[in-house]
Design a protein that fits this description.
single chain, 487 residues, alpha+beta, Phosphorylase Kinase, domain 1, Transferase(Phosphotransferase), domain 1, Protein Transport Mog1p, Chain A, 3 domains, 7-stranded antiparallel beta sheet, 6-stranded antiparallel beta sheet, 9 helices
Length: 487
């Protein structure tokens, strides 16, 4: 889907992400001079009354609450095709799930996040609303400016499963994320605020220990959980608080979330004052609206692949890879300067482009490669900090992009034994609707991060991207810049 020029009265900057029921766009409120996030119901659900009502209920639930720790809904509207949208606060610092993938939080930072999420839940509960899906991906971070400078605020978002307490007190449909959901919620029983307390306790266990208390594969597994492993955090009082919040019987938990967080703060004493620092750099063009589309509030037709190709991009991390890295040794290369810090390189045919830091252009190879011995060569492009950047014995930063023959994504990829942490493979779709798989590795020697992604670009071709980088955010930026033209 290409970016619409406007959604209602709001110029659109770019797409942030999407899920099964909605797409979220970064836009600009010209009246208030601020960035906003706009959540639009997916067009394939526009005619489903139940889903439409659930979408609107999320906005109503959020609107009921006035708390800096719950995502604010500023406005709501309807597009010309009758799809509803919600205009919300923009979380410029991403999610807790993204942050803890980079590195564990310090104990004081973890407690700061737990207390802020607890305040958000208490605000929801005070207005008679349950969240029902507290997990790292639904904790968002936003930069807030005040007289003391910029600081980071944690907010609860995504009330797609939210319910009014008088509805949740009766039997309801089971839902939630298995590793964080309360047993009574997994069983589909009537719920109260202690279900959200259980989820917050599970999140607390995760942040304080660096591991989840449970690894449930399904809601059925969450119906009767065994006691979690000891936390081993050198604070028996804090561990007792968290484990009480995780009690299987809700009667054994704290009476409410505020009591849980107060007990945890008391147990941890003075370790509660350091919020996470900003970790995503400010975007100087944050409020620049998209150009080249009609101001209709609808998504415009995508550009032709003959003229512009297909931009294979995604805001969130997903990842993939497949064969061993095979690079040609051609001497010629194309380089287009785009600024003092980044450059765009392309292969010899002009079919693949990627924007990289200038330091990654020390060794550029735009020649074809042979993904399968004895088969025709395919377009490819490599750029790195030096010759041999892609070797396993002496790696450095760089990117490789190549075309592979294939009609479907592989089910698994070769591992990198030297990298102690692997996440994935994760399967998803990019903004053009192409299937893709991503795997990422951290703690790698030489370069901390390795990301591999495979995208199915048509019925018989795949695009493989491998990135090695010292910083994940640099790898993300390079990954999002990859373009395959004319496939």
């Amino acid at each position: 889907m290409s970016a619409p020029s406007r959604l209602g009265r709001y110029p659109v900057r770019r797409r942030i992400g999407s899920g099964a029921f909605a797409t979220v766009w970064l836009a600009y409120d010209e009246h208030l001079d601020s960035a906003v996030a706009i959540k639009v119901l997916a067009d394939n659900w526009a005619g489903d009354h139940h889903i439409r009502q659930r979408f609107l209920e999320e906005g109503r639930f959020l609107r009921k609450v006035e708390s800096p720790h719950v995502v604010t809904v500023y406005d709501a509207g309807e597009l010309e095709d009758e799809r509803p949208y919600l205009v919300m606060a923009y979380a410029d610092q991403g999610t807790l799930a993204d942050l803890i993938e980079l590195s564990p939080l310090s104990r004081s930072q973890a407690v700061s996040v737990i207390l802020q999420v607890g305040r958000g839940l208490t605000a929801l509960h005070d207005r008679g609303v349950l969240h029902r899906d507290v997990k790292p991906a639904n904790v968002l971070f936003r930069t807030v400016e005040n007289g003391r400078g910029a600081h980071i605020v944690a907010m609860l978002g995504d009330l797609g499963l939210g319910k009014a307490m008088d509805m949740s007190s009766r039997l309801t449909m089971a839902g939630g994320t298995p590793s964080y959901v309360a047993p009574e919620q997994a069983l589909g029983e009537g719920l109260d605020a202690r279900a959200d307390q259980f989820s917050l306790a599970a999140l607390s266990y995760h942040l304080l220990t660096g591991r989840q208390p449970y690894a449930h594969a399904s809601l059925a597994a969450a119906e009767n959980p065994a006691p979690p492993a000891p936390m081993e955090i050198d604070n028996p009082a804090a561990e007792e608080v968290v484990l009480r919040g995780l009690a299987k019987d809700r009667e054994d938990r704290f009476p409410d979330v505020a009591s849980f967080t107060a007990a945890l703060a008391e147990a941890l004493g003075d370790e509660v004052d350091a919020a996470p620092a900003a970790w995503i750099p400010a975007d100087p063009d944050l409020t620049r609206p998209a150009a080249g589309t009609e101001a209709t509030g609808q998504a415009s037709d995508p550009p032709s692949t003959a003229s512009r190709g297909r931009r294979l991009r995604r805001w969130s991390w997903v990842a993939a890879a497949v064969l061993a890295l095979l690079l040609g040794t051609g001497a010629g290369w194309a380089l287009e300067r785009t600024g003092t810090s980044e450059s765009t390189v392309e292969d010899v045919e002009g079919l693949i482009e990627v924007t990289v830091p200038d330091a990654w252009t020390a060794q550029v190879d735009p020649e074809h490669w042979s993904p399968v011995e004895g088969r025709p060569e395919q377009p490819s492009l490599a750029a790195g900090t030096r010759s041999g950047w892609n070797s396993d014995d002496d790696p450095d930063e760089g990117v490789f992009v190549g075309i592979l023959p294939g009609d479907k994504l592989p089910s698994r990829v070769p591992g990198h034994a030297a990298c102690p942490v692997q996440r994935g493979p994760y399967f998803d779709e990019n903004s053009e609707g192409d299937e893709m798989m991503t795997v990422f590795f951290s703690g790698c020697p030489g370069v901390d991060w390795m990301v591999e992604r495979i995208i199915r670009v048509n019925h018989n071709q795949l695009l493989w991207v491998q990135i090695r980088s010292h910083e994940r955010r640099v790898a993300t930026r390079v990954m999002e810049s990859v373009e395959a033209l004319g496939f």
